[in-house]
Every structure is written in C-alpha cells, then in structure tokens.
Design brief:
alpha+beta, seven-stranded mixed sheet, single chain, about 25% helix, five-stranded antiparallel sheet, about 280 residues, 15 strands
Length: about 280
C-alpha cells in the first residue's frame, strides 16, 4: 500500500468507496449519500478549485501484485485558525482489516501539523454509527455539536477535540495499535498466541480442515479478539487464495465475518469488533 495525494483521475473510484462505506456504516438515505459525495468529493474539490484550497486529500492505493492496484481509502483534512480538522476518513469495506485506516489517520495528522495545526479536531456526523466511538478511542472528547448543510441536505455534526494530559494517554492506551505495532498489543500479540491445532511445516504455520485440506496461517496479519487474535488462512503458502479465518484461542476455522468486518468464533465465542468499533485502524467519520 502507498499513500499519495489525490488526483483528479481518482474521482470515480473515490465516489465508489465513499458510497459503499456510507451505505454500510451510516444511518443515512441514498439522497444524502449522493449529496455528500457530490459536494465533498467532486472534481473541483479534488483539484483544489472549490475555494477550499487548503483542504488536504490523501488516498491509500493498494499495491497488490495479483490484482490491479486501486484506491482503497481516503482522508480529508484542513487547517483553519491553527486547528487541524479531520473531516472525513473512509476505507472501502472490501479492504478493511489491513491497517489502511491507521495509515490514513496518521498521514493526515502529520500533514496537518506540518501545515501549522496546533491542535486536532474530528467531526463525525451524527449519522455515522461508529463515528463518536472512533473519535473517543483515539483520545478525543466531544466539545459540542452543530447543524450543517452539505449539498442542500441538513446534518448534525459532532465536534471532538484532543483530550489533554492523562486523559489522552489513557484513551490512546485503550486503542488498538496500528498494523506495525500490533505485535505488542497486550493479550493479542503473535508471541502470546499458542496456535492450537496447527504445526510448523517448511517454515509455515499450517492447519488442517475437517476434510484434510492443508491451509496456511498468516501469523503476521492478526486481528485482535476478546480472548485471542484471529488470523487469515489461505489455501496456498503465497497467501493469495483466501480460505477464511483462524481463531487463535481454540484453533477453529469456523469463524464468521459480517459486513461490518466483525469476527466471531462459533466454537469458543471469541470475537473481534470491527476496527471502526475499536480504534482508528479502519474507521470512517
């Protein structure tokens, strides 16, 4: 995955991922979704000719060697009166669980601070079902709300500011770490997982289905769980043909994943909330 500035040629793809994200995670009508997409992600916005030239648009582009690269996420921010505002963050539902949201948030944060932001704020819409939890787990606290208009549609927008001192440190400690840091997460690290019902074969962690099919566990791509981490399993050692997920608590492959990217093991009840529920890893404002 690579992060880069938005290009006008990204418009169509950004419209697709914003629409799919809002459809999945917002209590919002199709007409309101269209209003947000057209007003906030139109060509004039992306090209900086809308009168909001200070806005920052960063996209995450996949670099999959098998499939064609695509824009999988976008974050929008701006600096106004020394306040860095993160206005929107979306990750395509089909590309969640890869740390894209984390990378986008950090990129926006760093860029806003470089542009002179002395503090950060986030503005989830009331209709964003996971927005407030997302902000709070990042160490932000609500300071107010207001009614706004986007593309002729009315919305309520919550304002969240960075908590200070011990509050921010405590909140940050509760958030799920980024993909690069997840090995240090208490109780969920690869090092603390015993990997029941698996064995090492030729340098790969493998498990076997009830039908005797050998599968490969990607131990470098863990998803936190209430009892232990989950890991994707593949039919091939190159990790190209996804089979499903493995429960690090009981070793079961009977793991369900819903459209909100939430995992649950039917054998032991181990579960994983979507990253938008837990932290900023794959969230959306």
């Amino acid at each position: 995955m690579q992060l880069r500035d938005v290009r006008s040629a990204d418009e169509g793809r950004i419209h697709e991922l914003v629409e799919s994200s809002m459809t999945a995670d917002y209590a919002i009508s199709p007409q309101q979704i269209d209003a947000v997409v057209d007003d906030q992600f139109g060509r004039d916005r992306l090209e900086g000719s809308s009168g909001d030239a200070d806005a920052t648009y960063v996209v995450a582009e996949t670099d999959d060697e098998v499939e064609e690269s695509t824009v999988a996420g976008v974050v929008v921010g701006r600096v106004a009166d020394a306040i860095g505002e993160i206005r929107w963050l979306f990750v395509d539902p089909e590309h969640r669980g890869k740390g894209i949201g984390t990378s986008l948030f950090e990129a926006a944060r760093d860029e806003l601070r470089e542009d002179g932001a002395e503090e950060l704020r986030m503005y989830p819409l009331e209709e964003a079902t996971q927005g407030p939890q997302f902000a709070e787990r990042l160490g932000f606290e609500q300071i107010g709300d207001r009614e706004i208009e986007i593309g002729g549609e009315s919305f309520v927008e919550y304002a969240y500011a960075e908590a200070s001192g011990d509050e921010a440190e405590s909140a940050s400690g509760d958030a799920e770490p980024s993909a690069s840091e997840s090995g240090d997460a208490a109780g969920d690290s690869t090092e603390s997982t015993t990997f029941p019902n698996t064995e090492e074969r030729d340098g790969h962690r493998t498990t076997t289905t009830d039908d005797g099919e050998q599968l490969y566990v990607d131990t470098d791509d863990e998803q936190s769980g209430t009892a232990a981490a989950f890991f994707p399993v593949y039919e091939d050692e190159a990790f190209e043909e996804r089979y499903g997920f493995y429960c690090g608590n009981c070793g079961s492959l009977d793991v369900s994943v819903d459209q909100m990217d939430r995992y649950e093991c039917s054998e032991c009840g181990n579960s994983h909330a979507s990253r938008s529920d837990q932290s900023y890893d794959d969230s959306h404002l």
